[in-house]
């Protein structure tokens, strides 16, 4: 999954597919296939516009988020551990003052809230360093730094620093769970990512209860015309939703879910 997830999947994003279709269109035009070439370019343009709107982005995200909607902290059961998935920090070369947070940082906040509410005595922070090489901290190390700033004692944090993708998060976390005789866990990740994460962890034999956060399907009746305006944020949101749908299909075909 690592090669598909990290290297090939960018080619399957809406932007990547649109650029490929535009390139094909221009190639067809160069070889005299005017009608087919113009059709390819037009389809790429219209498709890219559609997936760059909140109308499409939020509906795709909602398909995933509604499978495991967020639950109030007080309503979640107690567990042996909280498993916090990476993806909330951006790598940066030293020196730096603190980990660089991105739009998924809600995950750390929820994990710390669950710990402070007494839902579990331990947090497993799982995430390696797949791209940036020596001198850059693993995602797990960055997450631990964030958690301690949020009031979680270092003694309550277990690091898993080998995982390179969601399937790795699941398999390596399962080993840590077994080594510490932990049976159940609250799984913390973004709502869009939760269906694939739950499937991967359950396939790895880990009994998890979803604790979703970072919800992006937030439709409103105000200014409905805004849903049809192209926005970079909407394109990113659509890309992430499609990434999860493709990833889930791949996991099912390869027995990871």
Outline the structure in words:
By secondary structure, the protein is α/β, with parallel strands linked by helices. The protein folds into two domains: 2-65 and 230-253, no CATH class; 73-213, Rossmann fold, CATH 3.40.50. Helix content is 47%, strand content 12%. It has nine helices and seven strands; from the N terminus they run ααααβββαβαβαβαβα. The protein has helices at 2-8, 14-30, 34-51, 54-65, 106-116, 139-149, 166-179, 194-203, 232-253; strands spanning 81-85, 89-90, 100-101, 123-126, 157-160, 184-190, 207-213. α2 (14-30) runs antiparallel to α3 (34-51) and α4 (54-65) packs parallel to α9. The two termini are 12 Å apart. The relative contact order is 0.19.
> Which fold name is given in CATH as the topology of the largest domain?
Rossmann fold
CATH architecture identity of the largest domain = 3-Layer(aba) Sandwich
**Backbone structural class:** alpha/beta
- Give the averaged pLDDT, no decimals: 90
Helix content: 40-55%
Q: Which ranges are low-confidence, i.e. pLDDT below 50, for 5 or more consecutive residues?
A: none
Tally of contiguous helical segments = 9
What is the name of the CATH class of the largest domain?
Answer: Alpha Beta
**Main sheet attributes: strand count, strand direction, barrel closure:** 5 strands, parallel
Indicate how many domains the architecture comprises: 2
Please, what is the CATH homologous superfamily of the largest domain? HUPs
What proportion strand? 5-15%
CA radius of gyration is 20 Å
- SSE topology string: HHHHEEEHEHEHEHEH
**End-to-end span in angstroms?**
12 Å
Shape: elongated
């Amino acid at each position: 999954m690592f090669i598909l997830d990290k290297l090939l999947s960018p080619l399957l994003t809406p932007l990547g597919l649109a650029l490929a279709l535009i390139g094909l269109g221009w190639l067809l035009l160069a070889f005299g296939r005017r009608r087919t070439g113009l059709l390819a370019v037009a389809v790429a343009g219209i498709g890219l516009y559609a997936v760059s709107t909140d109308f499409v982005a939020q509906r795709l995200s909602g398909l995933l988020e509604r499978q495991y909607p967020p639950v109030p902290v007080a309503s979640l059961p107690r567990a042996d551990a909280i498993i916090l998935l990476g993806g909330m920090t951006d790598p940066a070369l030293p020196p730096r003052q603190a980990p660089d947070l991105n739009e998924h940082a809600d995950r750390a906040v929820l994990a710390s809230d669950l710990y402070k509410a007494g839902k579990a005595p331990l947090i497993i922070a799982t995430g390696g360093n797949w791209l940036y090489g020596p001198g850059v901290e693993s995602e797990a190390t960055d997450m631990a730094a964030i958690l301690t700033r949020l009031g979680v004692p270092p003694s309550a944090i277990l690091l898993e620093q080998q995982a390179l993708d969601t399937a790795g998060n699941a398999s390596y976390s399962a080993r840590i769970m077994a080594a510490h005789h932990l049976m159940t866990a609250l799984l913390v990740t973004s709502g869009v990512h939760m269906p694939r994460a739950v499937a991967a962890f359950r396939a790895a034999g880990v009994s998890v209860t979803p604790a979703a956060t970072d919800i992006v399907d937030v439709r409103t009746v105000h200014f409905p015309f805004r849903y049809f305006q192209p926005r970079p944020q909407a394109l990113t949101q659509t890309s992430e939703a499609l990434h999860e749908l493709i990833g889930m299909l791949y996991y099912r075909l390869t027995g990871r879910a």
